Amino acid sequence: MKINSKRIASLGTLVAIVSVVSLFITSPLVHAATSPGLGAADPFVILSSSYINTIGGTTLSGSLGYTTGPATAPTVNGSTHTADISYSQAGIDQASALSALNSQPCTFNFAPGAIDLATDTTHGTVGVYSPGVYCTTGAQSVGGGGTITLDGAGTYIFRSTGALTTSANSAVTLANGASACTVWWTPVQATTLGATSTFVGNAIDPAGITIGNNVNWVGKALAFGGTVTTTADTLSTSLCATPPTTGTGSPTTGNTSTGSTSNPTTPGFPNTGEGPMDSGFGTQSLWLVAIIAPILAIATITLSKRKKA
Fold first, then answer.
1. How far is it, in rounded angstroms, from Cα 246 to Cα 1?
2. Segment 13-52, tens digit of pLDDT
3. How far is the C-alpha of 275 from the C-alpha of 271, rounded, in Å?
4. Is the dihedral of CA 91, 241, 104, 252 positive or negative?
5. Given this model, what pLDDT does residue 304 score?
6. What pTM did the predictor assign?
7. Which residue of 156, 177, 284, 302 is 20 to 30 Å from 14, comparing CA positions?
8. In the 8-state DSSP scheme, what is residue 86?
9. 220 vs 60: CA distance, rounded Å
10. Alpha helix locations (H) across 200-261?
11. Contact between 137 and 267 (Cβ < 8 Å)
């Protein structure tokens, strides 16, 4: 039987095109990390079941909510809600936000065990973090009076199966467009901030939040279902009118890029590793199919005519 080189070339082209289309259709689309809306919880700088404050000097800029109140009232530049409708709805919305945060894929998995964010060398530059979802199987800390810098506009999620601790005199700072509105801390165990430390972001921790003496915190202590303790501290909530949908890209790409998906699955975290698939085809895949389908049809017809010839 004579081998027709043109027919083989046509067949090879057809196979190549089919392979490309299959690759785009079957590859999962990875979503960028996003900051959820907080709903009724957004105005609260402290939300807890029990709120403990035993000495004067604490100033809260934002709403305060609790069921059991403090022995010594703080200065509240906002509203105080004691187990009212707003307080209850805020608790529901806190839980929804936590669920949304925990459903997002990790863009970096630390080695198992406790991690000091100020000294870790595995994620990149020591003490500097770009937007992304950082996952730890164990406790997270900012130790030794160290400093970490959140560098660039985007969403930061620090998730751990253990506790969150910052040492005395430590600092979490923002640079190059990073915003406290889009920084999230979601430990499973309790959060403890060291004395005279600086902290930013929204901690959602029903296990409880203890804030050491003279802490300066820009963000929210959301512990509905748990206890929040303050000691002559300054907390200021950051109100974000529109829930940001920022990505996990570098400062140069802003909120349009996505984070890495080369991480292995981490036990204890939902949806880690690769990002979730879109239901059905993504917009990009639809366009590819629309463009390539006619090429496939032409190639098939051409090959069929050559076979008949």
1. 61
2. 444 444 434 434 333 444 568 999 999 999 999 999 999 9
3. 7
4. negative
5. 54
6. 0.72
7. 284
8. H
9. 10
10. none
11. yes
